[in-house]
Amino acid sequence: MSKILIVDDEPHIRLLLEQTLEELEDNGVELLTADNGEAALGIIRSEKPELVFLDVMMPRMNGFDVCHKVKNELGITNVYIVLLTAKGQEFDKQKGKEVGADIYMTKPFNPDEVVEKAKEVLGL
Amino acid sequence: MQVQLRKLLSKKELLAVINEVIGAAGAPICVMDHDERLLAGVEINNPSHKYPVEHETKIIGWVSGDCKASAIASLLSYQAGVEVQKKTLARETLEKYKEITLLYSIAEKITSCLNLKEVAKLVIDEANKFIGATGASVMLLEKEGGKLEIIAAFGSDSHPEREINPGEGIRGDIFLTGRAEIVNDASSDPRYVEGTDKIASVICAPLKIKDSVIGVISLSSTVPVTYTAEHLKLLSTLASQAAAAIENARLYDELRETFFTTVHTLAETIEKRDPYTAGHTRRVMEYSLAIGEHLGLSETEMTTLKLAAILHDIGKIGVRDSVLLKEGKLSDEEFNAIKMHPVYGEDILKHIQQMAKVIPGVKQHHEKYDGRGYPDRLKGLEIDITARIIAVADSFDAMTSDRPYRKGLSLDIAFEELKKHSGGQFDSDMVNAFFMAYEKGKIVL
Question: pTM for the whole thing?
Fold first, then answer.
């Protein structure tokens, strides 16, 4: 069973992403959520999701740090990380690459694009 | 909305609670979905009690065991209701979010577009995706005539093809009132004007800049549909973005117009030094554009060509009158002075950033295809295409115009000259394009 982790400190973004990805539950995909970086890290360790939608701007541990820790320090490479960045905010693409993120998407995200990406990554 | 008990119990937290309750019950309990597959607890044959888990009178599962199973069934029914409520909200929120995302992307598209017709077209196309129509149009108030003119339209909204008066028909009326409206039964509306297409429903919003209405956007359907308040809200949002973009495009057009006029005036001022070359700039521009059009140049390339053609002799301002206006044969030194004008042209234009693409056409218009031109003896495709075009147009006009010391050549002889030097002095593709354009009547002498 494939797992997708949604990480954002804003509840409405989590809800929207969950609702967007809900159709994949019929394909046996399990949706997990976390509202901060530390919790996300714990879930990535224990649940080993294939795909993570990871908000960059979060209090305490931000998305860059989570991504860096997962891909470099913990050496978990079989996880696809999508960084979520707010539109209009200066996003450091170079930094995204350095910490090992696979791609980034801007918020407001396009729901169709999110589903498409998830299907592609999970091979559905 | 449907809810499946199996899906509900796939949530770990809920399953944990249910298992805990089952454990506390002290007797075997069995939770099954509607087609009796086991979801929690243990399977029980012939249970004494069996309670349905329901959502809105629909049975979505069963809890069986002893009488305590009833409480679990109620708990799950309640939970199903909560879940549906949550999902309904989430779904609605997502719908709204999709709308916002779309509006966002439309806004990005239209605000980055500076062509009036393209903006209008884009807006009706996008509005159509949202609202669904058999026709749509953007009408704008003409500044001089005071009438509403169609800028972009398709289908049942393309009529009438003429402009309308403010106040005429539904669209004309909305232009006056400045208030967006839905007319779901158009033919019985007193303002309805019988068009070529019979329209059944219309949704229309004014295009406003601050407090003044500059036009209207409308969508219509030939089959009866019910446009909703939701549609109207969306169209109004779109209309306000469209109005701003249209105003931008208009201002840009005006600016462009001013720019071209200024450039023209500048070129003509220089032309005035030599009365015998009157009209040369305009003709070279017209011939060049005819060639460029025949070659299928893009809009941007055509603009560059136009500017380069207008400005090709701008550098002559740096050549002394005694040389420029001299009648009769020039000395080598004098001819060398004349030959500097393309370079002076570059010197003048290089200070204007927006002219960067125009410079090659100005600097290289005396280069020859065979490499025997000036100032840099460029050859073949080393010479910018605008310069290769202008070279043909410039030479043709020089040959056919009268000069104080000689009469212009006849057309036939000038044509012969062009043919003779095609592939030598001139790029043969440009010469061919010149003749093709001439045959099509695009070159007016």
Answer: 0.60
